[in-house]
Specification:
Elements (H helix, E strand, L loop, with lengths): L4 H105 L2 H52 L22 H8 L2 H9 L1
């Protein structure tokens, strides 16, 4: 190698060194990126496995907790049913005892025949009272009808006096006559039964 070729060799060597450094940097970046990707993948896998494990454990805990709560509820339900059964039994027995005691006390303190006679006497008094009330009501109704008849009689005589000339005659029918028959109607029978002369005599008095 000549003296003139030494600088070129140094320069080419330096250029090769720079290229090697650049390649080394690129390789380092690729390794770093690959390491990051591997770490990300591993972390994701570990996280998913951890979450899956936590979910499984949570499910197990929930299952045990539900079982525990269910057993507690069943125990409470059984206890309540037992208490209710006991209360119903004691209530039934108390009712039976009360019924027996009432029967015993009634038989001891009450005379059946005296009670029956008293009820018959009360029934007779009630029937007599009802009969008297019916008689009183009938008497009041008869008295009211008599008073009404006495009050209406002068008006009936007055109206009969005013309307007696409307009676049917042999020549013409009256205004209260039924054209289909020659018999008096009810109003005409009342007017015909009225004694005009007697009314005038009483009126003059």
């Amino acid at each position: 190698m000549t003296r003139l070729a030494v600088p070129e060799f140094i320069e080419s060597t330096q250029e090769k060194i720079r290229k090697l450094k650049v390649e080394e940097n690129n390789l380092r970046r690729k390794k770093h990126a690959a390491a990051i990707k591997i770490q990300k993948t591993v972390r994701g896998w570990m996280t998913r496995n951890h979450l899956k494990m936590l979910k499984k454990k949570a499910t197990t805990i929930q299952r045990y907790w539900r079982g525990y709560k269910g057993r507690l509820q069943v125990a409470e339900f059984v206890e309540k049913m037992y208490q209710r059964m006991v209360e119903n039994y004691y209530q039934k027995m108390a009712t039976r005892i009360q019924a027996l005691w009432r029967g015993y006390w009634s038989r001891k303190t009450m005379n059946y025949y005296e009670k029956k006679a008293w009820l018959k006497s009360v029934e007779a008094v009630n029937e007599d009272t009802l009969r008297k009330m019916r008689e009183l009501r009938m008497a009041e109704e008869a008295l009211a009808a008599k008073d009404m008849e006495d009050e209406l009689e002068p008006w009936l005589h007055y109206m009969a006096n005013k309307l007696h000339h409307f009676l049917r005659t042999t020549v013409r029918p009256g205004i209260y006559s039924d054209p289909k028959t020659t018999e008096y109607t009810e109003i005409e029978r009342f007017l015909a039964s009225y004694q005009y002369r007697g009314f005038m005599t009483d009126l003059r008095r």
